[in-house]
Amino acid sequence: MKLLEREELLTSLQVLLRNAAAGQGALLFLEGEAGIGKTSLLQTFAEAQRAHHPVYWGACDALQTPRPLGPLFDIAAQIQGELQAALANSRERLHIFSTFLHELARPPTLIVLEDLHWADEATLDFLRYVGRRIGRTHSLLIVSFRSDEVGPAHPLRLVLGDLATSGAKRASLAPLSLTAVRELIGAGDIDPEELLRRSGGNPFFVTEVIATGGARMPATVRDAVLARAARLRPSARAVLDAAAVAGPRIEPWLLEEMTAAESGWIDECLATGVLCAQNGVFTFRHELAREAVLEALTPTQAMSLHRMALQALQSHSATAHDLARLAHHAEGAASDDDVLKLAPAAAREAAAKGAHRQAAQQFARALRFAPSSSALRAMLLDDYASECQLSGMVSEAIQARQNAAKLWHELGDRDKQAMSLARLAHALVVSGKNAEGEATMREAVALVPNDTAAAAAVVRRWAAHLRMLDRDVDQAIQEGELAMAAAERRGDQESLVHCLNTIGSSLIVSGRVEEGCERLERSREVAEQMRSDSWIANAYVNLGSACGEVYRFDLADNYLRRGIEFCNERDIDFSRLYQLSWQALVWMYRGRWTEASGVAHVVLADSRSPVIARITALVALGRVRARRGDPAVWEALHEAQGLAGNTGTLQRVALMQAARAEAAWFEGRPAEAASEAAAGLELALRKRHRWFASELLFWCWQGDGSLPGGIPEFCANQPFAMEISGRWQEAAAAWRELRCPFEAARAMTEGDECSQREALAVFESFSARPMIERVRYKLRSSGVRGLQRGPRESTQNNLAGLTTREVEVLGLLAQGLRNKEIGQRLHRSSRTVDHHLAAIFTKLDVSTRAEAVSAAYRLGIISAKTP
Amino acid sequence: MPRYLVERTFPDGLGLPTNAEGAKGAAGIVSNNAQEGVTWIHSYVTPDRKKTYCIYDGPTPEAIRSVAARNGVPVDRITEVRVLDPYFLY
Known about the structure:
By secondary structure, chain A is mostly helical.
């Protein structure tokens, strides 16, 4: 078929491939509605390139539950060699992905992945992995998808968003013009304007209508397809029906087996053009045509054709192991036994490849056929719940786990019921339903009075974990030690890893940071030996978040960076998102506000973010806004209150109440600040949490001068307590030690004029408007004159609002000087230089020294001539 | 999408001339803004050109700050605002 009005796109594809060959690999997303001509364009392009470059082709299928990494299997069959071996043998996705990338690094290649709107989770992860790295290869990867099927909530949208920052390109196909429609009709007796209006210029629709002769203009593209199919003789139509069930890509032998006596009529289907033969398989001329034929089948016709397809596929060695495809036909055939055998096997295969969403769907498929009140059903419910939780569908996980526990109860299996309940309790807690989680855990514990049972070990370690999460740290350590001793006796590695995690996290929170880190590091090491990615991730999560909670931001920053990288490479999203939310909070404290709010937005924009990550990100964002005096503070902090309030647990409530107290105080409502702080204080005192308790006391005192219950002994040496008791110099030094520049400056506002002026300079470098206004007012009221009313004068013509001193620092930075050297040149301490750098980074919206210098050149703040 | 009033101070006066050079500068700003989903509606400038009051549509205050940094202009204060039009009543 002739390609019309696609010259421009073909040229840009050629340019992209040429650049790729020269070492600038690229990923292009090609989008357009169904039938707009994506495949035709790509085939034309690929045919033209085949003589010069290898071309590999993969496609996603419209199965209800797609085969994990389906398109990669297609491509592996074409490349063979290492990739095929990796796919066949390896359970490790990272290995498969990097093998693929290795293939791409060879001489220039064109790879086409079609119909990614039907992609499984693992394929999308693959796309994310390759998309971030393709720039360094010599290959062009083109990915097509139907724009009308990828709504705002479609998983592919997230990938598009993720990859937009990695330089992925987008192109879309325009509908045909009237001229093109006229050209296609040729001498035919069809009104081109009418056809353009009906079809919206969709090339597939247009050609279908022309193929039927256009005697009656069909209303939809489906009508057009069925009108064309209706002209086939009955035997040929039977072949077409079988093909629609067997599709989208139909092996010739399969179609022959399914149609037996009528198989001679395949040729008629090919001759009329409804079916095409391509690369050794039959396909419909377009997937839209297959869908139309499939929908026109009666349920009994469809069932018997699915049964025939299943039998044929099972008896053929090449297809007998394609579990997702077999399970699809088994369900279509409504064959209970086959579904219950095939779907769970397909699920386990998907899970091993990291496609947890597909695994959950296959378990769900099996559940549709599992007999009620059977142990099989209860087991499937547990498996389904685990897969849902890993892939971020926590509410589905909770419901399934509840049903599993109920069913185990009816079946009289107390051990299984107790284990389901213990895991249910944890799922409830991470989704912010703490009270329900605690009640569920009590139920689980009561079911296994006998400590020696294997089930008891599972329940005990999850119970200890919940105590840690609720910050009953002494109890968590005690219960964790008991469970760990039992685990060591049994040689139960997973329980050991889990208990070390619980104990380590509790130790850090209670202030024994080094001991705690040591336990968590050991937990991570054993998890590494076990190759348990999820427990390695859990160790990083708790190292980062617990160190952050006790203001050890140096340690937290380091652990979070490593943990996020680990999860990123393996696409462990639940843990990745929670760690990102803590990174936002840590950066907020360290004065890196632009980066903190940026990361918080990443977490909040992701629908997979668990409730606990949303709360933390909202607190970080709310505090950055409050400290800057920006709007939308309460938008963030009200949402945080709604989510954290439900948990009633210290970790979430104290973070949220302290942020709200600070924001109210900045906005000049001190009584409200005190009452917000008081709302979390009782809980923090009861759990003896020195950081949360001392901060909430501090805001009570700032608000209305009250100190409910006085400063308890365990808080006395906290920097917040030093601020309360007027030891501002000590407090400022402590805050500086902890790398909290904003808190250090706040402590100095309680000092003499000189330290107040120093604090003012820090707040100015942060553009922290509420504190700038407060300190200026304070200085003026004590008779200080000559204070700047607006932002500081800058003598140089720079638009970024940098002060003269900051421009000076930038100039020295551009010469490659280090902070200490810059300080020596300017006769300032290197701490002051740090403040200047922080201010420069914020104003230029950059995060490294090199970026700052290049931004300064770009904006003309410094010129190449600067000495 | 929220609307914001953004106040800026230019101690040496705003360096955006009303000529082809200025038009080019403004076009650059518009394209930087688009990357963050921010739209510059218009601005009011004091006669000495030292202070501007700019009306922006943007998804968040952070987006407003980010494009300000990219465009190399300062931010004194961001306030969320709504339109109140006296002639709407006629």
